[in-house]
Amino acid sequence: MGMKNKITMLDVTLRDGSHSMRHAFTEQQVRDVARGLGKAGVPYFEVSHGDGLGGSSLQYGFSKVDELKLIAAAREEAGDSKISVLILPGIGIHEDLVNAANAGASMARVATHITEADVAKQHIELSRNLGLETVGFLMMAHMAPTSVLVEQAKKFESYGAEIVYVTDSAGALLPHEVSEKVRALRENVGCKVGFHAHNNLSLSMANTIAAVEAGAQFVDGSLRCLGAGSGNTQTEVMAAVFDRLGYKTGVDLFNIIDVANDVVAKFMPRPQEITGSSLFMGYAGVYSSFLLFTQEAAERYGVDEREILIRLGKMKAVGGQEDLIVEVAQQIANEQAVAK
Amino acid sequence: MGMKNKITMLDVTLRDGSHSMRHAFTEQQVRDVARGLGKAGVPYFEVSHGDGLGGSSLQYGFSKVDELKLIAAAREEAGDSKISVLILPGIGIHEDLVNAANAGASMARVATHITEADVAKQHIELSRNLGLETVGFLMMAHMAPTSVLVEQAKKFESYGAEIVYVTDSAGALLPHEVSEKVRALRENVGCKVGFHAHNNLSLSMANTIAAVEAGAQFVDGSLRCLGAGSGNTQTEVMAAVFDRLGYKTGVDLFNIIDVANDVVAKFMPRPQEITGSSLFMGYAGVYSSFLLFTQEAAERYGVDEREILIRLGKMKAVGGQEDLIVEVAQQIANEQAVAK
């Protein structure tokens, strides 16, 4: 197979992986990962609380180490790699983005629910004013038809975003759906297009290939899949697969495998398997970061996690509605008590 | 998406999983898995030593419990599910197949290297004479061009095979390659077509979808991916994905998740992650069951596993040549000693 387009890999181990780590990354872990990613030539990697800048809180989980300290540490180790930060309007504020830029971030990814791009206007504008490369990150992309995705991406473009992402937060998209969505963005929006996968249906690599074949220029991955739910597209495997497919990523395969196995595998609290609950998140289409909360609520109220996830899917619950999980668990427990 | 064709799932947890278990399945484990698969309505599942009937040996690893005893136990628990056995000419003999049929097997899968179907003639004929549903299983399918695959499949057909499998033993195939191979078999061979994946490149689900879309009627999976290398297509996830894609498998999703999580997850010795070495097997294209031997040899001789795997790939090493692994490791160690 001949050489195809260049694609740009962005590693989210130090941001999406924060969920799996219960936000307890140490500075040493961040330095070691950042050094490895830099050495492997990964062009971008993200460092933030799992729920974005300012996410350290009672609701989302407190960070063990302040993310600004982690960004600065990563910047010292990262060599030629650029550092991105995630920011969700409503969680991260103006000051967080200014501080992140000062700490060494050069890209901001402003994330909203698939139907809510308009809450991102100020953040996008601020990011551009700070001189950051600016991304609109449309989460839970499976929850709206492609026409809505295009309309929302156009809003991001109008605010000044340079790249717009299809973000499969729930790991619920099928490859033909990814193709359709990415192709529609390439045809209708002037921004570059990115794709962010979760592996809840064992489709993260399939979907990432589908995205690239449909024209995506940016693709996200995480080392050893470290991320919410069943994790992300496995960065080091993606480098191998795109090499086999004839795409140019610029990532060194031996070095990227080394940081995955010698660094990340050693501190991961548990493997990123597809368990019954993460599978069900993809199948029912609910938010990946709900996983740990759902398991806890299921155990606390003695109900089946899958019942909780199916109901959350039907309710189209979104990030920020973590309180719903406990309500749903209580409701199922009550119904079961009545039925007995 | 409307209802598409019916596809037939075959679970290999109790055969390919034998590699990951170092062939130490207990009778209780086999009964529990068999009962769960039967309850979930999985139409076929396989029970044999990882290297097929008669594989229990010094070279391939001794089984903890005799496979005939395990087949009989599985048959007692399996309900309406049918039991298949794997047999490799040169390892399994005439008597093994007769005994397996007597113990309750109703399908035999006769496996050869992609270029060696002609060694399977007697086994295929015997299987038909025993009244077993008979499959030709072409391993290491990435090692020969599609024209050779078709020619070898036609041999299987001429011997009496009813189904022929494209078997990606090394987890090295890419989705477009799977499509091409399966489509060529559907167009040129009268047998039904099956596909068996390994997840070394995180493509098992992508490849399984590609196979079905190209016309495959049988697809293999294993619970929690339990199998050689990074394991197989995850059975319970496959059931969910094909449901979402509109194919009919007849498998109950809650029940199949239960046996995966409540039974298999509890006895797995380690998660089926994609490690550096299993990734490299897929990338270099070497035999999945080489994994543990390669790790042992790398450790023993103090060399990089990946160097061993790349050389084995270049040598086109095949199953049965496990001795080569140690030779290659020694050779690399010697070269490194000279270089120092």
TrEMBL record, chains A, B:
The lineage of its organism: Bacteria, Bacillati, Bacillota, Bacilli, Bacillales. It comes from Ureibacillus manganicus DSM 26584. Gene3D superfamilies: 1.10.8.60, Aldolase class I. PANTHER family: 2-ISOPROPYLMALATE SYNTHASE 1, CHLOROPLASTIC-RELATED (PTHR10277:SF9), HOMOCITRATE SYNTHASE-RELATED (PTHR10277). Substrate binds at R15, D16, S169, H196, Y287. InterPro entries: 2-IPM_HCS-like, 4OH_2_O-val_aldolase, Aldolase_TIM, DmpG_comm, DRE_TIM_HOA, PYR_CT. The record marks R15 as: Transition state stabilizer. This is 4-hydroxy-2-oxovalerate aldolase. It is an enzyme of class 4 (lyase).
